[in-house]
Amino acid sequence: AQSVSQHNHHVILSEAASLELGCNYSYGGTVNLFWYVQYPGQHLQLLLKYFSGDPLVKGIKGFEAEFIKSKFSFNLRKPSVQWSDTAEYFCAVIKAAGNKLTFGGGTRVLVKP
Amino acid sequence: SQTIHQWPATLVQPVGSPLSLECTVEGTSNPNLYWYRQAAGRGLQLLFYSVGIGQISSEVPQNLSASRPQDRQFILSSKKLLLSDSGFYLCAWSVGGGISPLHFGNGTRLTVT
């Protein structure tokens, strides 16, 4: 069965700092990868996704993620965070032809103004 | 446009009582439907998913069951709630699997007392 690991449960940083959130999955076949974000008081929304092509994908609000197949990783990055990036971030994986989306445990990010 | 409705928003139930949470999707046909439970620090746990009417896949053995009586209706139930059933329950839909992102409802906060 596929599983997803997010290594950091909590991250605290200051505005303008760079952010990188780790995500690793365990499945040897072809996968599609997602990052979702949940802002305080709001429902989950899609940040970005990868399914083929350029392994560096860009999402909304200046976020990007890099798929490294050899490392089974899909790390999320943002060069300079803002206070409004305070949220919980979830990595998720689905088999390319599958229906079951598996989420990681989430990382709570707090950006101090 | 597609919308997802999930109700109730909050629910307080005594141990041993039954449960019924309802989710409906509008504006799309034959969606994949999902029930997740979100717990602090544990991410989103997939409980059930359905790719069609009457087709339910259960991911975690537990005190809950799901049914899909109509194409765009997904119900989460329990005959007798346990304290451990407390949590935040999310319904979601997607058009097929694979690269299609999930669209989440606003969730139901269930407290079992």
Tell me what the structure shows.
The complex is a heterodimer of chains A (113) and B (113). Chain A contains no helices and twelve strands. With 113 residues, chain A is mostly beta strands. In chain A, the strands form three sheets. In chain A, strands 2, 5, 6, 10, 11 and 12 form a six-stranded mixed β-sheet that branches. Chain A has a four-stranded antiparallel β-sheet with strand order 3-9-8-7, with no helix packed on it. A two-stranded antiparallel ribbon of chain A has the order 1-4. The N and C termini of chain A lie far apart (41 Å). With 113 residues, chain B is mainly β. In chain B, the strands form two sheets. In chain B, strands 2, 4, 5, 6, 9, 10 and 11 form a seven-stranded mixed β-sheet that branches. A four-stranded antiparallel β-sheet of chain B has the order 1-3-8-7, with no helix packed on it. Chain B is globular and about 35 Å long. At the A-B interface, strand 5, strand 6, strand 10 and strand 11 of A face strand 4, strand 5 and strand 9 of B.
Gyration radius of chain A, in Å: 13 Å
The largest chain-to-chain contact, stated as pair and per-chain residue counts, equals: A-B, 27 and 26 residues
Tell me the strand percentage band of chain A.
over 45%
The tally of beta strands of chain A, per DSSP, is 12
Question: What's the oligomerization state?
Answer: heterodimer
What is the radius of gyration of chain B computed over CA atoms, rounded to a whole number of angstroms?
A: 13 Å
Low-confidence residue ranges of chain A: none
Structural class of chain A: mainly beta
Calculate the mean pLDDT score of chain A and round it: 93
Helix content bin of chain B:
under 10%
